[in-house]
Sequence to fold (686 residues):
Amino acid sequence: MSTQQALTGSIIASSPDLGLLLEPVKDELVQVEKFLNSNLVDDSPFIEELLGQVFRAGGKRIRPALVLLTAKATSNPRGHAGRLHIILSVLTELIHTASLVHDDVLDSASLRRGQETVNRKFSDKLAVLTGDLLFAQASVCLSRLMNPVIVGIYGQVLGDLCAGEIRQMRQQFVVSTDWNAYTQKSIWKTASLFAAGTQSAPILNAAGDRVVSEMKSYGINLGVCFQIVDDLLDVTGNSHALGKAAGSDLTQGVITAPAMYVLERKDGPAQRLDHLIRSRAVTGSEGVDEALEIIRNNGGVECTVELARQYARRAREALTVLAPSQYRDSLDSLIDWLLIRTT
Amino acid sequence: MSTQQALTGSIIASSPDLGLLLEPVKDELVQVEKFLNSNLVDDSPFIEELLGQVFRAGGKRIRPALVLLTAKATSNPRGHAGRLHIILSVLTELIHTASLVHDDVLDSASLRRGQETVNRKFSDKLAVLTGDLLFAQASVCLSRLMNPVIVGIYGQVLGDLCAGEIRQMRQQFVVSTDWNAYTQKSIWKTASLFAAGTQSAPILNAAGDRVVSEMKSYGINLGVCFQIVDDLLDVTGNSHALGKAAGSDLTQGVITAPAMYVLERKDGPAQRLDHLIRSRAVTGSEGVDEALEIIRNNGGVECTVELARQYARRAREALTVLAPSQYRDSLDSLIDWLLIRTT
Fold:
């Protein structure tokens, strides 16, 4: 079975198109896009230019879509997403984008989604401030929701994002097969923000506790699945989807699921991979290519696909709390879309 | 009259000691210090180490003190500051510190308050994340206040801090004597956070609207006064109080009140100063020394002292809304302390 087949399996038959999935929240996503570019801070045209630079690059807007679909799937009457849900969507994307802008400074990245990064177009200094500005815009959005519980949820998310990055930075080139730590890092880096959105949308609808907790579970599991697929793509090397070179995690000494599956076998290939990482040979192109080959030839990809599927199943189970609707269908199909993100 | 005399004038007679002024909130400041070092994000000892590195350097904790004194001056019965006011104090200092940590990365500073900066001790990357972490800790504090109005106030403050920095960066080496723009920048960079604290403390006490708005006015005017004194110190060169070399604003092309007073005279010295800035001669030690001499010898210092005094007077007027108490006395004496910050 090829990597591609392993990843997509039977799902490929129903290969969901993202545009089609997001059709039920199309109009709201247009409003989100406009709002993302609004200067909430002052009347300076330059700040609008900065926001334009950041958001013109586009992006799939998965997080706002999750918020809006969850909002519509849990509203009464079904299908309604009001002003507060638009703000919640914007806030979620602002936090995500702020962390990307800071990441780009840290990695000295020149391109993001095919557009020049702020650090490249202007300066590192302005890019740090732009990230801060996006966090500030998110805070203004948060305050407009007038909901202390949601303020608490997003406060924790900001902490999780930092904790995840700091932990990852400190674990560079540390060879570990601690699955709890790996999952925790995926929650911090990715799933926590997903879950904040899918949990807060029903809170704004005054939905019952069970709906809120199951939709939180959907967000966590979908987010972990998303991160696992992202880690997998770094190994399988679909650079079109990634927008970065294959093996860039390994090059930076970040050990993820595909490598961990091989490492925990403790056989010959595992020892060789261990050596390539510890000796930092993976920082060179020859070393990283050898490491990727070892991972691909020793089941790292297949095991990781199975892991992603486990989280996908849990995300799908959580959706059973919702009454049937086209919004629930989209949330369900988004799981499949994630799993075939390489195509 | 020497610079020093011009600045302190008759106030020197009553030269207030900061420790004495803060005596009424001494116990609460100990709690604030402990809270500042608490990891609110996860259970990682490394994050505690990072916070320790940042806060061990100390600092005057003016902002927490302002919150606590205002809390006690507006509480009923007088003299009470509870758990929420401690959190508000911590939150205010966290935001201030986060912006300092990011500033240090941007300026590649090695020392802050006599301690190694995070960027120096660890890396730029970790310092950007540490600033983000402090903002995250502030968000967690904000959520604990459970007060949507205060969330709105601090959301705006974050925006103001970014707007102020971005505006300043874009105005480097631009010779301007636009006093409105100068005052606005001082509000964004400094006064907005002061006022958030002095306004939110009475809000938490459910004080009346007039008390809240006058205490906001106190914070704004005290904050602008603080920034003006800071700008002045950069010219008079009391590097002990500053912790940086004299003329560092000019070197970076940042034009503040002392230079603006000379520039707007449009006479010979003004033209020379204008030339030194536009030609960027001020980036060299000879150029900046000449520019500082021109400012000092042409009334830049005296006029700026008078400007600071105007804002000090407005801050003092706002305090008349408070009933007499030792806390009001301290808030009043803090104004004097600011004015003689060079000693």
Observations:
- The two ends of chain B are 16 Å apart (CA to CA).
